[in-house]
């Protein structure tokens, strides 16, 4: 009897854990994309184009990059929207904006 009362709450909790895991995964993907883009931009003559090409195959739906190259370094800021679409829990939570910034020293192309 007690299990029948608690089971829906346990399932809701487990779905929440899955949703948080998906948001964390998206954060890691954004950090990785920023690192890849910064590396490509640091060795290229045109940093913005190289950064965009480096992340062309990213699995993130709404990845945007902002590249700034000044002096001896290049900085890439990557942002994406992590869609909360896990059944039952996704409707209760808003979409999450995840971002990462990476700076690397410029190298001669």
Q: SSE layout and pairings?
A:
Layout (H helix, E strand, L loop, with lengths): L1 H41 L4 H8 L9 E7 L2 E10 L13 E10 L4
Helix pairs in contact: 1-2
Structure overview:
- Helix content is 45%, strand content 25%.
- By secondary structure, it is an alpha+beta fold.
- It has one domain.
- The protein has a three-stranded antiparallel sheet with strand order 1-2-3.
Task: Work out the radius of gyration.
Answer: 19 Å
Termini separation (Å)?
Answer: 70 Å
Number of strands: 3
Helix content: 40-55%
**How is the biggest beta sheet arranged?**
3 strands, antiparallel
Secondary-structure-derived class: alpha+beta
Number of helices, counting only DSSP H or I runs of 4 residues or more? 2
Question: How many domain units?
Answer: 1
The succession of helices and strands, N to C, reads HHEEE
| Low-pLDDT residue intervals, each spanning 5 or more residues | none
Summarize the entry for a quick read:
The chain has helices spanning 2-42, 47-54; strands spanning 64-70, 73-82, 96-105. The protein is α+β, with helices and mostly antiparallel strands. The chain has a three-stranded antiparallel β-sheet.
């Amino acid at each position: 009897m007690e299990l029948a009362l608690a089971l829906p709450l346990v399932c809701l909790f487990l779905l929440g854990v899955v949703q948080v895991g998906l948001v964390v995964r998206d954060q890691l993907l954004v950090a990785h994309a920023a690192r890849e883009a910064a590396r490509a931009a640091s060795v290229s003559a045109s940093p913005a184009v190289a950064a965009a090409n480096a992340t062309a195959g990213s699995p993130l739906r709404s990845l945007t990059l902002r590249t700034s190259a000044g002096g001896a370094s290049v900085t890439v800021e990557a942002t994406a929207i992590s869609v909360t679409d896990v059944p039952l829990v996704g409707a209760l939570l808003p979409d999450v904006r995840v971002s990462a910034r990476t700076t690397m020293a410029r190298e001669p192309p």
